[in-house]
Design brief:
The chain has 278 residues and is of the alpha+beta class. The protein contains twelve helices and 14 strands. Strand 4 and strand 5 form a beta hairpin. Bound molecules: flavin-adenine dinucleotide.
Length: 278
C-alpha cells in the first residue's frame, strides 16, 4: 500500500519531494490511474491537486499570464484571459477528453506525461511557453522547447516539481490557429495536431511559429518550415515551399493509430491551410 501525502502548501510539497524522490507526485490523476494498472504501486504518492500555490491564472507584467501547474482544463476554459489572449490554448483544452477529464486533468500533468499526443503541448510550444520548475533549493525557468528532452522525457530532476507555465503576450494582431486531427471529432486520441501563431507586416509574414504533435518522438517546432515562410506573402507558392520544407524536417512513424504517410500528408495540409488563412 502506498503512503499518501497531502502537503498543505508548496514548501511542504517540495520538502516531501526532496525527502521521497521515489514517491510519485499526482495532480488530477487521470494519466496516473491509467498507467498504474501496468505497474507496481509506488512507495508513496504526493498529492498536488488543489494546492493553492499551483492553481489558477495570474497576470504577468507586459500582458502575459502565469498558469499554476495544477490548473485544470476546466479552469482554463473558464478564464477570460485565456479565451481573449491565448485562444489557441483554449481551443486545445476544449478538445481534451470529455468534461470529467477536463475537470480533473491539469496542464502540468499533460506536460509531465509529455506524450507525443498531449494536446496542450503544441500550443505551449507555439506560444513560447516558459516552464517554471522548483525544488527546495529554489525555482528555475526553462524555455519549453528545451524542457522537452526525448520521448516522454522532460528536464525535471527527482526532487523537482513543475510549478507554473508562463505565456508571454503574443504580438498585437497575431493570428493563432489550432487543429487536432483524430479518428472522430470528439474524444479521440490525436493522429496529428498543429498549433501556429503568426503575424503579418505589410502583407508579409513577419513572424511565424508552428508546433506539431504526433509527428515525432516529442512535440516539435517546424523551424525549417517557419524559415521558408518568414518574409513571404501568404500564397499558394509560399504554402508549396512550406510543404517541401516540412517534408524535410519531420519523420512521423507508423503505429496503430495511423501511418507515417498519412500523418505527413495531413501535417502538410494543415500547414498549407494555415498559410492560406493568413
Ligand atoms: C479518458 C481519458 C481521456 C483523455 N483524453 C486526453 C486528450 O484528449 N488529450 C490529452 O492530451 N490527454 C488526454 N488524456 C490524458 C490526461 O488526462 C492528460 O494528460 C492530463 O493533462 C494529465 O493531467 P493530470 O493532472 O491528471 O496528471 P496526473 O495523472 O496527476 O500526472 C501525470 C504525470 O505527471 C506527473 N505530474 C503531475 N503534475 C506534476 C507536477 N506539477 N510536477 C511534476 N510532475 C507532475 C505525475 O507524476 C505523473 O507522472 C486523457 C486521459 C483519460 C483517462
Amino acid at each position: 500500500m502506498s503512503e499518501f501525502l497531502s502537503p498543505k502548501d508548496l514548501p511542504a510539497a517540495l520538502a516531501a519531494r526532496a525527502a521521497h524522490p521515489d514517491y510519485i507526485p499526482v495532480a488530477g490523476g487521470t494519466d496516473y490511474m491509467v498507467a498504474s494498472k501496468d505497474r507496481l504501486p509506488p512507495p508513496g504518492i504526493i498529492n498536488l491537486f488543489g494546492l493553492g500555490a499551483l492553481t489558477g491564472v495570474t497576470d504577468l507584467d507586459g500582458g502575459g499570464v502565469r498558469i499554476g501547474a495544477c490548473t485544470t482544463y476546466a479552469t482554463l476554459l473558464g478564464d477570460a484571459r485565456i479565451a481573449n489572449t491565448f485562444p489557441l490554448l483554449r481551443d486545445a483544452c476544449r478538445e481534451v477528453g470529455a468534461s470529467q477529464i477536463q475537470a480533473r486533468g491539469t496542464l502540468g500533468g499533460n506536460i509531465a506525461t509529455s506524450s507525443p499526443v498531449g494536446d496542450s503541448l503544441p500550443p505551449l510550444l507555439a506560444l513560447d511557453a516558459v516552464i517554471c520548475v522548483a525544488s527546495s533549493a529554489g525555482e528555475r525557468r526553462v524555455a519549453y522547447e528545451d524542457f522537452l528532452v526525448g520521448y516522454r522525457k522532460i528536464d525535471l530532476a527527482a526532487d523537482e516539481l513543475i510549478v507554473a507555465i508562463e505565456l508571454p503576450a503574443p504580438h498585437v494582431g497575431a493570428m493563432q490557429h489550432w487543429r487536432k486531427v483524430g479518428t472522430r471529432r470528439a474524444q479521440s486520441i490525436s493522429k496529428v495536431m498543429m498549433a501556429a501563431v503568426a503575424h503579418l507586416d505589410d502583407g508579409r509574414i513577419a513572424d511565424i511559429r508552428i508546433a506539431l504533435g504526433a509527428v515525432a518522438d516529442r512535440t516539435v517546432r517546424a523551424r525549417a518550415t517557419e524559415d521558408a515562410l518568414r518574409g513571404s506573402a501568404p500564397s499558394e507558392e509560399a504554402a508549396k515551399r512550406a510543404r517541401e520544407a516540412l517534408r524535410g524536417e519531420i519523420t512521423p512513424i507508423d503505429d496503430l493509430r495511423s501511418t507515417a504517410e498519412y500523418r505527413l500528408g495531413v501535417a502538410e495540409n494543415l500547414v498549407r491551410r494555415f498559410v492560406l488563412s493568413l
